From TrEMBL:
This is Putative PadR-like family transcriptional regulator. InterPro entries: Tscrpt_reg_PadR_N (IPR005149), WH-like_DNA-bd_sf (IPR036388), WH_DNA-bd_sf (IPR036390). Residues 15-90 form the Transcription regulator PadR N-terminal domain.
Amino acid sequence: MPTSPPPRSPLNLTVLALLFEGPMHQYRMRKLITDRGKGAVVNIRSSNSIQQTVQRLERDGRIEAVQTEQVGGRPARTVYRLTSAGRADLFDAMHNALTTPAREYPLFPAALSFMAIHSPAEVARMLQQRRTELHRIVEEHKRGVQDAPATLPPVFLIENDYTICMTQAEIDWVDRTLAALDSGELTWNTRELIERAVRYEHDTGDGPR
């Protein structure tokens, strides 16, 4: 009997979407994720990540085992299929993900909010390093698009296009920030900022109690 919807995650969504195509075992799921280049949008680096997700979805009634396959001397493989509850969850998750921007609390903006603990020169060096990595990511995804078969429908490459556009936008932001740091338009003194924060707490009565 289905329980409450399982926590939504990229891997949950991926497993449900693959089973929407048809029944399959975990090894085929991993192969399809790898072959289709979905490793860029879903984390399967842990060897048991798919297994744990499948077990959780089965426990929650979103998928069910239909048969066990054994080929030659290979270990037996359980084939799973989508349940009606799993299908409903898949479509609900897709609707929410595509229509509603999620507040995901990524690490980079959090680090930016405290970057003044470093000097402007140190921040500039770190952002230059980030810029190099961002360009590498753009080129990697462009190669993925260029190397795709000409007969592959563009819809199967849409996440590459999205990643290229979003990463390029971040590069543009990094370039503007580096220019502001270089010109002195964006600058600070860490010790002075800390002293100002202490004075503000004292003046407003918002200090530690």
